[in-house]
Amino acid sequence: MNGNVVIDYRNPSIIRKMGIEALTKELGPVGMAYFIQQFDRGEGDYTAERERLIADVTMEDALRELEDMREREDS
Question: Is residue 5 part of a domain?
C-alpha cells in the first residue's frame, strides 16, 4: 500500500484483505491456503474452495513459484 494512505487497522475486513494479499505475495496462493488452514479448519467444500483459490494459477506460475522457493532456500 502507498505510504500516504491511512489504514483503519480496526476494520477486520481491511486487515483480513491485507493479510491475505501479503500471505499470497510471500507464499503464493497454495501456500497461503495451507497457512490459513492451520488456524481455521473452516466449513464447506474444500475442493471447490481450492479450485477458486488456484483458478488463475497456471502450470508456469506453479513452476516459477517452486523455483523461487528453491532459490530462497539456497540463499
Answer: no
pLDDT band at 28 (very low <50, low <70, confident <90, very high): very high
Write out the DSSP string of 32-53.
Answer: HHHHHHTT----S-HHHHHHHH
Q: What is the pTM of this model?
A: 0.46
- How far is residue 74 CA from its own chain's centroid? 22
As for how many domains the chain has, the answer is: 1
pLDDT above 90: residue 7: no
Q: Determine the Cα–Cα distance for residues 33 and 53; give it in Å rounded to an integer.
A: 8
26 within a domain of the structure (yes/no): yes
Report the alpha-carbon distance of residue 48 to residue 50 in Å, rounded: 5
Distance CA 12, CA 66 (A): 32
Q: What's the pLDDT at 41?
A: 67
